[in-house]
Predict the 3D structure of the following.
Amino acid sequence: LADLFGVDQVPRKGPPLIAIPTTAGTGSEVTNVAILSDKVAQLKKGIVSDYLLPDVALISPQMTLTCPRSVTAASGVDALVHAIESYLSLNASPITDALAIGAIQLIAKALPKAYANPANLEARDDMATASLMAGMAFGNAGVGAVHALAYPLGGRFNIAHGVSNALLLPYVMHWNKLACVERMQEIAEAMGVNITGLSAVDAADQAVDAMTRLCAAVEIPSGLRSFGVPEDAIPAMAVEAAGIERLMRNNPRKLSAADIEKIYRAAY
Ligand SMILES: [Fe+2]
């Protein structure tokens, strides 16, 4: 499989593929990406090829009813990050924007409900739909720095993908704000924040606060420290994350390895 890591390394299409998601999060049923742990490199790596696009995606909330609460939370936040990063991506288009904003609206309402009552079929349905929409958005617009910074955490410390995204999301958004204040204001509104009377910058900050509140509501811990990440691992992780060009090129604000180090330290 190592030969297939990267973009367009898959030589041909495999047998017909029918994807039936059992979590509401990855959006893999509609993307050309597969993510694997490279145990040697201690990094999560992507295989990106249009040959991985499923022929058929069957979405049923029934399939997610037995998903444990912690997985519901982590995968739900992953879907939220897909939608947010697509909306802020330099490759966003009006089509991915509509999907991304729709997904953010659904997740803000449905994720707390699905977490509070795993049997709530309506909330599960909304999450399954939102995950699909966010997958279609990022499958075309791409994700950015949150995912790039999350991969070393997953690869080295085995932190669940959605959780590592959640740990970094507020700090990366804070960094990105300078480049995309208006879009972050729109994200705040999509998350149900009343931004009347707020300046654009204050409204953008509200988007970060709303995400932090949502992650706390579904009991995702914060702080890299609480996951046993040693502080002296940060410089190497920053170099690794900076090298994930496939994601970094979508991010609205550029980051050097030194900038990334600061973000990891803020999230520590
Ligand atoms: Fe993701």
In short: The domain at 67-266 is CATH 1.20.1090.10 (Dehydroquinate synthase-like, alpha domain). The chain has one domain: 67-266. Residues 78, 82, 147, 161 surround fe (ii) ion (CB under 6 Å). The beta strands are 6-7, 18-19, 33-38, 43-48, 56-57.
